[in-house]
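Exercise 7b. C-alpha cells:
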C-alpha cells in the first residue's frame, strides 16, 4: 500500500514574531464597528475554538509593512458545526452504496470501517470525513495508458458522487491534479508518467466569505480506463449561530505583533515583508479535530523583501469572546488520510 499523506494539520500556527507595521490609508470605520466590539458584545457568549499550537512557522519576519487598505471592525456570522451521525449502520449503508455490500464492519480508535476484497471505506468518528479505497488505488503503481480530458473526468466524478450519495450541496469544481512517477531511462534521461488522476471539488463561499484550512473538499480518484479507484469527502455541515463582532485589520496586525497568528510559507531567512492583500475567511479545522464553531479569520498575503510569498492567519473575533479547548493528542492530531491533494 502506498503511503497516505497527512492533511494539513493547521494553518493558523502560533508564531512569536516582533513586527513593525505601517499601513496605507485604512478603510473608514462603519457605524457597527467600535460600538459592537464594546458594550454590544456583553450579551454574547464566548465560542469554543481549538487552541492554537505552540509550534509552527520558522519565519523570522521582523519588519512587516502594509501596502493595502485595512478593513474596519464590524460583525459577521459565526456558524455552529452540526455533528454527523457516525455509527455502524450508517457505515454499512455507505458501503452498500459503494458496492461493498458484504463488507466486514469494524472500528478503530478514530474510524469506523467496512471492507471486503473489492475495497474499503473509513469514516472518521469525530468529523464524519469519509475515505473510500480500492486495491487499484493502493496497489503497485503503474503508468496510465489511457488518460482522458478534464471534462470527461469532471463529468464522471460528479456522476459517481451523486450515484453513491457522496455529493454535497454547494460543491464547486476546483480542477484536476495528477499523481506521477519519474523514471530514468536510456542515456540517463528522465521521463514522467501519470499514475492517477484526482478530481477536486471545494465549497462555495459561506455567507459571502471563502473557506480556508483543510476543507470542505471532495476528491475522486481515477485509474486505468478512467475507472474510479477511490474518493475522499470532508464536508462539515454548519448552521447559522449568531453574529459576532470582528476586530479591525489594524487590530489583527497588532495581534500578529503579539505572536497571536501564524506566518506560513515564508522563507526562514527573510526578515522583512509587505502585506499586499487582506481578506476575511472561515476556518475549517483538520480531520479528527472536534470543531464546535466555524469562525472568521483574517488571511493576509504578501511578499518578502527577497520576493518570496507568505501568508498570515489570525483570528478575527475579539479574544474575550473566545474560549480555547485543547486539540487532540499529537498522535490523533496528525490524522492519516488517503490522498487529498494537501
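Sequence design result:
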Amino acid at each position: 500500500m502506498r503511503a497516505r499523506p497527512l492533511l494539513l494539520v493547521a494553518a493558523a500556527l502560533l508564531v512569536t514574531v516582533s513586527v513593525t507595521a505601517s499601513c496605507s490609508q485604512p478603510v473608514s470605520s462603519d457605524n457597527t464597528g467600535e460600538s459592537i466590539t464594546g458594550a454590544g458584545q456583553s450579551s454574547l457568549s464566548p465560542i469554543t475554538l481549538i487552541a492554537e499550537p505552540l509550534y509552527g512557522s520558522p519565519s523570522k519576519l521582523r519588519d512587516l509593512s502594509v501596502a493595502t487598505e485595512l478593513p474596519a471592525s464590524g460583525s459577521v456570522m459565526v456558524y455552529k458545526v452540526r455533528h454527523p451521525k457516525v455509527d455502524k449502520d450508517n457505515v454499512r449503508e455507505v458501503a452498500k452504496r459503494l458496492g461493498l455490500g458484504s463488507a466486514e464492519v469494524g472500528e478503530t480508535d478514530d474510524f469506523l470501517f467496512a471492507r471486503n476484497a473489492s475495497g474499503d471505506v473509513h469514516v472518521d468518528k469525530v468529523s464524519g470525513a469519509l475515505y473510500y479505497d480500492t486495491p487499484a488505488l493502493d496497489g503497485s503503481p503503474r503508468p496510465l495508458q489511457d488518460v482522458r480530458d478534464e471534462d470527461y473526468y469532471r463529468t464522471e466524478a460528479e456522476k459517481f458522487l451523486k450515484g453513491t450519495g457522496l455529493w454535497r450541496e454547494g460543491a464547486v469544481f476546483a480542477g484536476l491534479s495528477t499523481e506521477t512517477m519519474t523514471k530514468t531511462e536510456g542515456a540517463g534521461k528522465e521521463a514522467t508518467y501519470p499514475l492517477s488522476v484526482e478530481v477536486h471539488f471545494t465549497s462555495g463561499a459561506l455567507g459571502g466569505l471563502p473557506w480556508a484550512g483543510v476543507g470542505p473538499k471532495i476528491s475522486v480518484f481515477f485509474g486505468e480506463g478512467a475507472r474510479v479507484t477511490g474518493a475522499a469527502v470532508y464536508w462539515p455541515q454548519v448552521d447559522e449561530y449568531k453574529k459576532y463582532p470582528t476586530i479591525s485589520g489594524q487590530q489583527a496586525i497588532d495581534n500578529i505583533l503579539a505572536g497571536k497568528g501564524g506566518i506560513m510559507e515564508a522563507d526562514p531567512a527573510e526578515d522583512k515583508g509587505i502585506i499586499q492583500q487582506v481578506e476575511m475567511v472561515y476556518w475549517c479545522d483538520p480531520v479528527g479535530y472536534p470543531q464546535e464553531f466555524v469562525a472568521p479569520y483574517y488571511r493576509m498575503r504578501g511578499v518578502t523583501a527577497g520576493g518570496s510569498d507568505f501568508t498570515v492567519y489570525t483570528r478575527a473575533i475579539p479574544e474575550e469572546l473566545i474560549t480555547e479547548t485543547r486539540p487532540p493528542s499529537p498522535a490523533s492530531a496528525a490524522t492519516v488520510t488517503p490522498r487529498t491533494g494537501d
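Instructor comment: The first helix runs from residue 33 to 36. Residues 1-37, 331-342 have pLDDT under 50 and may be disordered.
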